[in-house]
Design goal:
Chains A, B: It is an enzyme of class 6 (ligase). The structure is a homodimer. The first copy, chain A, has about 80 residues and is α+β, with helices and mostly antiparallel strands. Chain A has two helices and three strands, in the order E-H-E-H-E. A three-stranded antiparallel beta sheet of chain A has the order 2-1-3.
Chain lengths: ~80, ~80
């Protein structure tokens, strides 16, 4: 069994309202040192396969088709 | 300036409906090898400070007070 970890982040050029809300929240709680905040997703997937190179391709396909909206989001993944 | 990366994940003992939905979606798209899926948050925070040990404590406080719900979520962070 392999484990894939996928990180989905909003592209730098796209506004991140959730990140702005978190930034505002932290400021109002006294964390004045907080600059830009970006919020993304962190997805752990168990894969019932042992073929690493096939898994690599399959996880890429999952990201492109479902996990990330590639118009506004970037993704990267690790297999372990 | 330091950059903190925070990972917030749902505790193993807590149900993850979003993860189940993603798992179901991947199955119905033909990714039959997909086992358990867990969805968490990935937060990047710019910190306008150079004091690493102070930043460490401050980020821990941000996690405890705002970023994670420690009743149902775990968190970990890295400073770079």
């Amino acid at each position: 069994m392999l484990k894939a970890t996928v990180y989905v982040t909003i592209k730098q050029s796209v506004l991140d309202p959730q990140g702005n809300a978190v930034q505002g929240g932290l400021h109002s709680m006294g964390f004045a040192e907080v600059g830009k905040v970006r919020v993304g997703k962190y997805i752990e997937i168990e894969l019932n396969t042992a073929d690493r190179s096939e898994a690599e391709q399959r996880v890429k396909a999952m990201c492109e088709k479902l996990l990330a909206n590639t118009v506004i989001e970037d993704y990267r993944y690790e297999l372990a």
